[in-house]
C-alpha cells in the first residue's frame, strides 16, 4: 500500500480524554444517530403504506421522494465537513438534530405531498450532518485502543432509534392512533437529543482545523477503492430495503393476524433489535478478519433481500429478512467507520465523509432506480435484482484488496482493533 500523508496537521491539539469523556461522547453519539439514522432517515419507509393512502403515492413517486431525501443526506455530508473544519463537531451535530426536529415536525403536520417531501428531505439531511463529526471528536479525544468501541457505539445508536420507531409505529397501528402523533413524538425526542449533544460536545467545540497539505489526495489511492465500491453497493441495497420492504409486505397482504398497516412496525422493530449485534463488530472482525467479515456482510444482505422478495407474507421469512438486514446494516456501518479511520488516521472525518458520500450516492440512485424497475417488472423482481448486486459484489471482492493499514505505517495510531 502507498503511505498516507504525514501525520502533521493544522488541527487543534488533541483534547485530554478522561474516561468520563469517552462515555459522554459515546452516549451522545448513540443518541444522535438513534434519531437521525432512526426515525429521521428510516421513517418514510416505515410509514410508506400509510403515506400511500394519505397522499395517494405511487411506487415511482415513493421512490422519488426517498431519493430526494437521500439527496438531502448527500448535501448534509458536504455541509457537515465544512462546519467541522471551521467550527468543530458541535455545530454540525447540533444543526443536524435541529434539522431532524424541524423536519419530523413538518411531516407530522404535512397537509399534502409537497409538505411531506420538504419534511422528509429536511429530516434525512440530519443524518448527513450529524454522524461524521463524531469520527473527528472521537479521534481527537479517545485513546486509540478505545476508538473502535466508541465508534461502534455511535453507529449502533441507529438500532435503538429504529427499534423504538418500529415499536411505536406497531403499538400506534394496533391502537388505532394517528401516525401524526407518532411523528410528533419523534420530533420531541429529537429536541431532547439536541440538548444532550449540545452539552456533551461543549468540550470539543474548537475547530477541527485544515487537513494536511495534499492529504486529501491520498483518499484516491488504490487501497481505498474497495472501501468506496462497497460503500456504493451498501448505499443501494440498504436504501432499497428501507424504502420498499414495508410497502411490499403490506401490498402482499401483510402477515397473518396483523393488519397491513402494522407490518411496517414489525419489520423495523426486528430490523433495529437484531441490528444491536453491531455492538460486537470489533469482536467479529477479530475472529473473521476484515476481508471475510465484509464478504459475509454482502452475502447476508443479498439473502435478506431475496427472503423479502420471495416470502413477503411469511412471518418467518419477514422476521428473518428484517433481522438479517438490520444486522448487516449496523455491522457494515461500524466496519466503514473504523476501516476508513484506520486507512487514513490523519483524515478521520474527511475519510469517513468520503465513504458516506459513496454510500449516499448509492442511496440516491437506489430508490429511484428500484421504483422504475418495480413499475416495469414487479417489486419482487426488483428485490431479487438488488440481492444479485450484493452477491455479485461479494463474489468480486478480493481479500488481497481489503486490508487495514499496517502498524508500521500507522505509527502512533496503529494499535490493533
Provide structural commentary.
The chain is mainly α. It has one domain: MFS general substrate transporter like domains (Growth Hormone, Chain: A, Up-down Bundle). The protein has helices spanning 19-36, 39-46, 48-55, 59-87, 90-109, 113-130, 132-141, 147-175, 179-200, 225-251, 260-274, 281-288, 290-310, 315-343, 348-377, 379-396, 407-410. α10 (225-251) packs parallel to α13. Residues 1-17 and 406-417 have low confidence and may be disordered.
The CATH class assignment is: Mainly Alpha
Instruction: Report strand %.
Output: under 5%
Second CATH tier, the architecture: Up-down Bundle
Can you tell me the CATH topology? Answer: Growth Hormone, Chain: A
End-to-end C-alpha gap:
19 Å
Q: What name goes with the CATH superfamily?
A: MFS general substrate transporter like domains
Question: Which structural category fits the helices and strands?
Answer: mainly alpha
In helices, the fraction of residues equals over 70%
Mean pLDDT level: 84
* Radius of gyration, taken over Cα atoms and rounded to an integer in Å: 20 Å
Helices and strands, in N-to-C order?
HHHHHHHHHHHHHHHHH
Which spans have pLDDT < 50 for at least 5 consecutive residues? Answer: 1-17, 406-417
Total beta strand runs: 0
Shape, principal axes of CA atoms: globular
Count of helical regions: 17
How many domains, in number, for the residues? 1
Main beta sheet strand tally, sense and closure? none
